[in-house]
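Class, look over these structure tokens:
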Amino acid sequence: MSGLVLKLGPHERVLINGAVVENGERRSRLAIMTPNANILRMRDAIHPEEVNTPVRRVCYIMQLVLTGDAEAIDARMQLLRGIEQLSQVFTDHDSRTQLSLATTAVLEDQHYQALKALRSLLPREERLFAAGRA
């Protein structure tokens, strides 16, 4: 099976091409077969007041593209600049791999994959900020 497979918990919500879809009583799997569908799990959504770190800022811009609140072509340069800035801080191999995946995904208009790669940096960023406060 090709495409994106979403595994949803009971009553979990997901935004698909601008429509909020809520799962029923049981766990389920959805196969998204449409290429380049805009998908955002509502549990993963970053709210505007939570955009308080560099990684969250770049993730939020990508989220705006996925929700249809920003045009991909307009956000592309801002996203690439943000990823480049992050690459100056995240210098370890794993982070570089995720940033490279995000860059490729942005260039290929694979917005969900770009957000997924960028979100993987959130725990690392949190650890860096925690170490800076110690």
